[in-house]
Design brief:
105 residues, 0% strand, mainly alpha
Length: 105
């Protein structure tokens, strides 16, 4: 009989752990996205500086293209950060709700 009571408890602990893990995963994703944005911005800044250091029109055109590509990647990382932060918040709310619901059992 005690095994039957233990089983649901193990499942609830696993559920709370899954929610905690998901929250941590999305927090890490958001942090990784911020780091990637910083790296891409640094690269963009170096390229923008390099553009003014050359007289070659073709080199400037290529640099502009590279900068535009980096800008696009930065925007993707901003979106990844936004989505990760939203999901982290959702999992935090779900975890709170589950913990409140567990108090009833």
């Amino acid at each position: 009989m005690s095994e039957m009571k233990q089983l649901p408890r193990e499942h609830t602990i696993a559920l709370v752990q899954e929610l905690t893990d998901s929250h941590a995963h999305f927090a890490q994703e958001a942090e990784d996205a911020v780091s990637k944005q910083m790296e891409l911005r640094e690269r963009r800044n170096v390229l923008e500086s390099a553009k003014s250091k050359t007289d070659s029109g073709m080199a400037q055109t290529i640099i502009e293209s590279m900068v535009n590509e980096l800008e696009s990647e930065i925007e993707k990382e901003k979106e990844r950060q936004r989505l990760s932060e939203n999901n982290r918040g959702y999992y935090s709310e779900i975890k709170k709700a589950v913990e409140e619901a567990l108090k009833e059992f």
